[in-house]
Each structure stands twice: as structure tokens, then as C-alpha cells.
Design brief:
The protein contains five helices and four strands. The protein is globular and about 45 Å long. A hairpin with a 3-residue loop joins strand 2 and strand 3. Helix 1 packs antiparallel against helix 2. The protein has 186 residues and is α+β, with helices and mostly antiparallel strands. The model has no long low-confidence stretch (mean pLDDT 92).
Length: 186
């Protein structure tokens, strides 16, 4: 009998072919992503995976210490899941950038592990399947309004925050060509 049959799925489990609201958080909630060059690493990775047909991105927001995505995983990226590739690639880029420009902050991500020296993302990101339009639009609103939250105050209105898909949904205007319209899926 398959022992995995009775093992609970991780909260990061994503089944290809379904749409998920996904949250990944920088380790120890460090505000690494408040700097634009680190946000660019995130968008560059989404562009590559999207252009290769591995993912479809419907919405995103990059906050100072976490990201939210609404996306669809199409297929594996070689032997890895696309979200695994995303986390690994961005971590490698963060490490290179910090080694060049901010060694003190790089030390904040040091871990005592046998398989790595640094850990940039918290383990087991949150994945929530969007099984209905009601749930999907609730998550879309949450994601776009996140920068306006009292704690963050990153913008006055959702479309005013550059590292988000809000402007795409409010007027079709976006510098992020990888976005697809969630409203066409439900």
C-alpha cells in the first residue's frame, strides 16, 4: 500500500492545472523586498517561467517581506515544480546581490543546515486553491489592497502601487506582459 496515501498534503501543495492563491514569505519576515532591485528579481523570474509556458500569472503583489500570487501551474520545470524553481532561483539571486552589496544583511539569512548556508524563503509557502469565482475575487481584492493596509501604507489606491497587478485590472495598463485576466477563468 502507498504510504503517501494517508500522509496529509503540505500547505504549499499545488496541483498542476488548478488556480491557486499563493503566499511566500521572506525568512524571519525580513523586509528584503522593500528594495526595487529585489522586486525586479521576482518579476524577472515570473517572466521567464511564464514565457516558457510553465505558469500563468493572473495577479500578484510584492510586499516588503512577502509576495502574493494568483497563478496556475501548467507543467514541471524540468524535474522541479515551477514554484520550487521560482523559490530556488530568486534565493540564488538574492544571495549574489547581498554578497556584492550588503554582506551584513546576508548574514541575517545564514542557517545551520547541512544542505545550504542561507535560507531566504520560509518553508512551506501557503497555497489555497481557488475553486470558485467568489473565492478568487475575494483573494484578488485582498492581494490588490494589501499595499494600502494601515501597517504598510505603500500607496493611496491599489493601482498606485507599481509592484502589483492592480493597474492591469483597473485599466488594462501594466508593464508586466506576463499577466493574464483572472476574470476569463471564472
Amino acid at each position: 500500500m502507498d504510504s503517501n496515501l494517508f500522509r496529509p498534503k503540505r500547505k504549499s501543495y499545488i496541483e498542476p492545472g488548478k488556480i491557486y492563491f499563493w503566499t511566500a514569505t521572506i525568512n524571519n519576515w525580513i523586509k528584503l523586498l522593500q528594495h526595487h532591485e529585489y522586486k525586479q528579481v521576482i518579476t524577472d523570474s515570473l517572466i521567464v517561467l511564464s514565457d516558457r509556458g510553465k505558469i500563468e500569472v493572473f495577479a500578484f503583489v510584492i510586499m516588503p517581506n512577502h509576495i502574493h500570487l494568483i497563478w496556475h501551474i501548467n507543467e514541471l520545470n524540468g524535474k522541479e515544480t515551477p514554484h520550487g524553481s521560482f523559490l530556488k532561483y530568486t534565493a540564488h539571486q538574492f544571495k549574489k546581490m547581498l554578497a556584492l552589496h550588503n554582506c551584513a544583511m546576508l548574514n541575517d539569512f545564514k542557517v545551520a543546515a547541512s544542505n545550504k548556508q542561507y535560507e531566504f524563503w520560509q518553508r512551506d509557502s501557503l497555497a489555497i486553491e481557488l475553486f470558485s469565482s467568489e473565492v478568487a475575487y475575494q483573494k484578488l481584492d485582498y492581494l490588490h489592497n494589501n499595499p494600502l493596509a494601515e501597517y504598510w501604507q505603500l500607496a493611496i489606491e491599489p493601482s498606485g502601487y507599481l509592484y502589483s497587478s492592480a493597474s492591469y485590472y483597473e485599466g488594462g495598463d501594466t508593464p508586466f506582459h506576463f499577466l493574464k485576466d483572472l476574470r476569463e477563468e471564472f
